[in-house]
């Protein structure tokens, strides 16, 4: 199993449709894999104490950008897809959100709270080898 995100960073305008691409190859044919997209907010900025550290996350203290414990950020399931059935997480119900094609996440019009990291995870009961997830970063910019 090999999962890749061809565009690891996407910048979108507020209220514009967003498509985060995720591709996978399964080594063994079988039932369709389960695709899950999970959202993680950026790390809080330690200097300002605000809840959004920008695209570089908490880069102070020698940590890599975007690294902080999950307890310091918002983490939620966006959507899952098995076969042709897509199930949305509670936060995304009522929005134009879906998983298209094999594993592309369509967020409809981008909202302020959409900036963050999106993890595409593919679970196959037939293929347990390889890398089953990839990360896409989304930055939503306001209109000027």
Task: List its traits.
single chain; 144 residues; mainly beta; Immunoglobulin-like; six-stranded mixed sheet
What's the layout of helices and strands?
Blueprint: E1 2-4, E2 9-13, E3 17-20, E4 23-25, E5 34-40, E6 75-82, E7 85-88, E8 98-100, E9 104-109, E10 116-123, E11 133-141
Parallel strand pairs: 2-11
Antiparallel strand pairs: 1-4, 3-9, 5-6, 5-10, 6-7, 8-9, 10-11
3D architecture notes:
Helices cover 0% and strands 42% of the residues. The protein has strands at residues 2-4, 9-13, 17-20, 23-25, 34-40, 75-82, 85-88, 98-100, 104-109, 116-123, 133-141. By secondary structure, the protein is mainly β. It is globular, with a radius of gyration of 16 Å. It has a single domain (2-45, 71-141), classed as Immunoglobulins (Immunoglobulin-like, Sandwich), CATH 2.60.40. It has no helices and eleven strands. A six-stranded mixed β-sheet has the order 2-11-10-5-6-7, with no helix packed on it. The protein has a three-stranded antiparallel β-sheet with strand order 3-9-8, with no helix packed on it. A two-stranded antiparallel sheet has the order 1-4. Mean pLDDT is 86; it is low at 48-65. 28% of the residues are buried.
Helicity range:
under 10%
Low-confidence stretches: 48-65
CATH class call: Mainly Beta
> Which structural class matches the secondary elements?
mainly beta
Biggest pleated sheet: 6 strands, mixed
Instruction: Tell me the radius of gyration.
Output: 16 Å
Sequence of strands across the biggest β-sheet: 2-11-10-5-6-7
Within the CATH hierarchy, at the fold level, what is the topology? Answer: Immunoglobulin-like
Quote the average pLDDT: 86
Strand content: 35-45%
Task: Give the overall shape.
Answer: globular
Query: What string, H for helix and E for strand, traces the elements in order?
Result: EEEEEEEEEEE
